[in-house]
From TrEMBL:
This is Acyl-CoA dehydrogenase family protein. Homodimer. Transmembrane segments: none annotated. Its cofactor is FAD. Residues 134-230 form the Acyl-CoA oxidase/dehydrogenase middle domain.
């Protein structure tokens, strides 16, 4: 049988090294500094986290998602799942290993779509940790889940493009040295066409790129910017991936990026389940421990079953990516299910903790705030459900069976 859920010894060793580094070095170092605003000074915050990045490089745990020839660890998506899940035991973990969003997805995009000059100018500094980036696609006037409706326009003017538009929830924009900006360039195709948009590389800061504000969210102002673009000029050579390929480029970027989010969410869900069980084993009420009460046992059991499903879905989708197979349906299913499970498991953990879980004395309240965005980021739940249904119906029409739309598994 080809099905094997074990890792090769060398990959088990990598997982052990990542776990030891995160739990033994990173977690103690960032305690009290996990939020930038909680640092004694900004200088101290930067000194600690950049020092940890240097340690990660020394330990050979830098860029797990990138090929070895580009300075990475050369891991496939199955192996990457174990690294991301270990790294995400602390919020800063993926960033310290230089495999955090949005830079992670932008690295993949530049490697696949960039020409040699663009790779050296934009990809290389990302890999070195010398620069940060953002991906500017979402707009307030149109549905974020439908990039074919984008209203930011780029108009050719000689050897340059003049861009005008409005973007928001552009993560990392205020820290970015450049943006991958999606704009509509083709006016002779109908609205909704997937060949209307083009991706541009935009150096930041730059005249015409106006960072209006950081959008306040449930978990505060943490780098999701609103941008007004006014007569921004970029050279023709700033096009990334070819004119009219903006939609294809965006979807190429989002597929694996969605799964990488799931890998990190699994770590958070597991942390919440661990806390739930620990609380149940140590809290006495009405004649017995919470762990002995059926109502609490059901919360634990439901969470354990969901987490098991999450792990299987992510591993299977990752294996399809590694094999070069069509992974769109599996990633959509994983993204939808893991995001929902993350919210449900953290919510159950808060319930078992009672008022303590609702307070900020444990990390659960903050985890819950961060978890809510998972159900609409990189495609809202309902969009993924729509696509999953479409592919399931298409599979039945083509073959008389829905098997191909449920993983194509041998059972």
């Amino acid at each position: 049988m080809a099905i094997d859920f074990t890792l090769a010894p060398e990959h088990e060793e990598i997982r052990r090294r990542v776990r030891d580094f995160i739990r033994g070095t990173v977690v103690p170092a960032v305690e009290g500094l996990d939020e930038e605003t909680a640092a004694t000074t900004r200088e101290e915050y930067l000194r600690v986290i950049f020092g940890l990045r240097a340690r990660a490089r020394e330990e050979g745990l830098w860029l797990p998602h990138m090929p070895k020839e580009w300075g990475g660890m050369g891991l496939g998506h199955v192996e990457l799942a174990m690294v991301q899940s270990e790294a995400a035991k602390t919020r800063l973990g993926p960033w310290i290993l230089n495999c955090a969003a949005p830079d992670e997805g932008n690295m993949h995009t530049l490697l696949h779509w960039g020409d040699d000059e663009q790779r050296e100018r934009y990809l290389r500094p990302l890999l070195e940790g010398a620069k940060m980036s953002c991906f500017a696609m979402t707009e307030p006037e149109v549905a974020g889940s439908d990039p074919t409706l984008i209203r930011t326009y780029a108009v050719r003017d000689g050897d340059e493009w003049v861009i005008n538009g409005h973007k928001w929830f552009i993560s990392n924009a205020r820290r970015a040295s450049f943006a991958i900006l999606i704009a509509r360039t083709e006016t002779d195709v109908p609205e909704g066409s997937r060949g209307a948009n083009t991706a541009f590389l935009v150096d930041l800061p730059q005249e015409g790129w106006n960072d209006v504000r950081e959008v306040e969210t449930m978990h505060g102002s943490t780098g999701h910017s609103e941008i007004v673009i006014t007569d921004l000029r970029v050279p023709d050579g700033a096009i990334l991936g070819g004119r009219g390929n903006g939609h294809r480029l965006g979807q190429y970027r989002l597929g694996p990026a969605r799964l990488a989010h799931c890998m990190r969410w699994i770590s958070q869900a597991e942390t919440a389940l661990d806390m739930m069980v620990d609380r149940a084993l140590n809290r006495y009420s009405h004649g017995s421990l919470l762990a002995d009460k059926q109502g609490v046992q059901w919360l634990v059991a439901d969470s354990a079953m969901e987490l098991y499903q999450c792990k299987l879905m992510v591993l299977h989708a990752a294996s399809k990516i590694d094999k070069g197979e069509d992974f769109r349906t599996e990633v959509s299913m994983a993204k939808h299910f893991v995001a929902g499970s993350l919210n449900r498991i953290i919510d159950r953990a808060i319930q078992v903790h009672g008022a303590l879980g609702y307070s900020t004395d444990t990390p659960l309240a903050k985890m819950f705030q961060h978890a809510r965005w998972a159900r609409f980021a990189d495609g809202a739940d309902e969009i993924h459900q729509m696509r999953i249904a479409e592919r399931t119906i298409a599979a039945y029409r083509a073959t008389g069976s829905t098997s191909a739309a449920t993983g194509g598994l041998p059972l």
